[in-house]
Amino acid sequence: MINIAIVGLGFGAEFIPIYQRHPNANMYAICQRNVEKLNEIGDAYGIEKRYNDYDELLADPNVDAVHINSPIPNHAEQSLKALRAGKHVACTVPMATTVEECMEIVKATKASGKKYMMMETVVYSREFLFVKELYETGQLGKVQFLKASHQQDMDGWPDYWPGLPPCTTQLTAWVR
């Protein structure tokens, strides 16, 4: 069992039931700066271990892996802190906002011996899961090639999103 801590409970809360159903994951802790939201989500999903301070979460020896869903400007800093604290990291895209930060994360991953996954989380959306189900039940027949894309309207997103370059991700799972 891998003890998972989710950081950021806006979009991040959507992953709680996924981890709770996974046979090899223990949805161990959640982290959110807003204590009211932290308690609301914790109560709704029955999660006892709650942090509103990221550094305190990283100091918990029972946390094996963090799933970062915080605002983009925090991704690199939080990923680096977690790797250096000896935690596996899954981070929503993008990994960082500069090439230098990306290189730091690569170096920290190698130095720590921990796993890092830049997560294009849309592969866990209902559309992708539906196609996966069709494949697994044989309804698609023999698949030679499959390609998917994800378009989204950026209205209402933070101002820095539209200026970011597109991200390419390797879509693998680190919880087996």
Question: Would you write up a description of this structure?
Answer:
The chain is an alpha/beta fold and 176 residues long. The chain has a domain at 2-124: 3-Layer(aba) Sandwich (Rossmann fold), CATH 3.40.50.720. Helix content is 33%, strand content 16%. It has a six-stranded parallel sheet, sandwiched between helices. Helix 5 (99-112) links the parallel strand 5 and strand 6 (116-119). Helix 4 (75-84) packs parallel to helix 5 (99-112). The model is unreliable at 168-176 (pLDDT under 50).
Largest sheet: 6 strands, parallel
Average pLDDT: 87
How many distinct helices? 6
Q: In CATH's first tier, which class of the domain at 2-124 applies?
A: Alpha Beta
**What is the N-to-C order of secondary-structure elements (H for helix, E for strand)?**
EHEHEHEHEHEH
Strand order in the sheet with the most strands = 3-2-1-4-5-6
Q: Find the structural class using helix and strand composition.
A: alpha/beta
Concise description?
It is built from 6 helices and 6 strands, in the order E-H-E-H-E-H-E-H-E-H-E-H.
Q: Any descriptors?
A:
about 180 residues, Rossmann fold, six-stranded parallel β-sheet, 6 helices, globular
Give the SSE layout.
Layout lengths: L1 E6 L8 H6 L3 E7 L3 H11 L3 E3 L2 H6 L5 E4 L6 H10 L3 E5 L6 H14 L3 E4 L6 H11 L40
Parallel strand pairs: 1-2, 1-4, 2-3, 4-5, 5-6
